[in-house]
Amino acid sequence: MKTVITYGTFDLLHYGHIRLLERAKELGDYLIVGITSDDFDKIRGKINVQQPLAERVAAVKATGLADQIIVEEYEGQKIDDIQRYGVDCFTVGSDWVGKFDYLKDYCDVVYLDRTKGVSSSQLRSKDRKLKLGLVGETPVFLNKFYEENKYVNGVEINGICTEDVSKFCDEIQKLDIVTNDLDDIIKNSDAVYIKSEHDLHYEHIKKALEAKKNVLCESPVALSKKQCEELFDLADKNGCVLMDAIRTAYSTAYARLLLLVKSGKIGDVVSVEATCTSMKYLKRTKSLLDWGANAMLPVFDILGTNYKSKTIISRFKDKGNHEDYYTQVDFIYDKATASIKVAEGAKSEGSLVIIGTKGYIYVPAPWWKMDYFEVRYEDQEENKRYFYQLDGEGIRYELVAFARVAQNKEMDYNRISKDVSLGICGVMEDFLGGEVVEI
Ligand code: CTP
């Protein structure tokens, strides 16, 4: 009996896939189809896959062409599979010519002509693209955001609202809409991404939501709880989406860390300590406004926003302008405590430590670009290290999530709850209102 194996994602199963499977089957007597797991796809940069593994497996099964279906979960698995299943022939479409020649040491390798004119990517972007307008004055960041969007199916950046476009990359300068009029960009887009100054967020978001446009905005979305609540109510009323943009929330490592904590791996959490510092932006010293939301994310995700009390401690450069060199916020909960330390005028190790009754989780600097963490115990032999791929600092994953939330209302893709957004805005409000211990 001749055993043939082939691999693929098989997202939104199409005619090209079926023809590939038919011809693969004809190469032998028994066909094994390896379907990539959701995680493995993410690791290899396929971030737009629409269907979860179970659906993709069911679709391939329904073709009746596979004698056996297996899941491909890790780099290098093909060699293992070929040996384990006694495979005689490996086959894949011609888009991979040469890529799998190394398997010739183990079995025959056949590249089958790819069917022209159809692909999963094409099917995914067949739905109308979300036209996204950019709003803001930070060229370095927005240029990067623009580049990251190239990895995302279904979102097209169609314009920018900014005071001086000459500071941006050529591609942004050549967008269809280049304007300094916010109404203009709102009118011509389905959604806006806001990266303006913090004190403009509320006004910018409100305008977009009033025009029934979806909004992705850097955190904090507003500078008071009341305004934040008002914006979320407006979004609900107008049937659109307001999503808080904190990239860390979209890293796989962060999502897994939260699950480990919730499953009791380190016992009861007694403390969360998050530090974020950077001295890159010397002209700015808005430590809490720039970093506070990011640092509060794990605190609120793990311990909730229902703390008993908090103390904000700041050393100011210019108190009147809310320019803080360093700010620390200590939270007291019923059975836990948390502390965030943020600075643009002081330097520290940017780590995250979550302390539990059985052990702790340590995330090294810069923890907000999380791709790795360790779970540590008294007995070091029990320690475990966890690695995950993080591309583009999480921006591309955040954009994929925003597109799914905005277009299909798949709300579970939004990783930042309204409660967390409100909690963040509440702390900012107290800081700006002067509820601060000055050092
Ligand atoms: N395939 C094919 N003809 C097509 C599309 C895919 O022969 N028009 C083959 C691929 O070469 C591969 C298998 O089908 O051997 C699974 O491919 P997959 O990557 O899942 O499908 P694509 O449509 O290429 O997906 P994407 O657009 O996401 O790359």
Explain the overall architecture.
The longest helix has 17 residues, at 287-303. Strands 19-18-17-16-12-15-14-13-20 form a 9-stranded mixed β-sheet, covered by helices on one side. A 6-stranded parallel β-sheet has the order 8-7-6-9-10-11, with helices on both faces. The chain has a 5-stranded parallel β-sheet with strand order 3-2-1-4-5, with helices on both faces. Helix 10 runs antiparallel to helix 14 (418-432) and helix 12 packs across helix 14 (418-432). The chain has 14 helices and 20 strands. It has 439 residues and is α/β, with parallel strands linked by helices. It binds cytidine-5'-triphosphate (CTP).
Describe the protein's topology.
Blueprint: E1 3-8, H1 15-26, E2 30-36, H2 38-43, H3 53-62, E3 68-72, H4 77-84, E4 89-93, E5 108-112, H5 120-124, E6 130-136, H6 139-149, E7 155-161, H7 170-173, E8 177-179, H8 182-187, E9 191-195, H9 201-210, E10 214-218, H10 225-237, E11 242-245, H11 252-262, E12 269-277, H12 287-303, E13 309-318, E14 323-332, E15 337-343, E16 352-356, E17 359-363, E18 372-377, E19 384-387, H13 395-408, H14 418-432, E20 437-438
Helix pairs in contact: 9-10, 10-14, 12-14
Bound molecules: cytidine-5'-triphosphate.
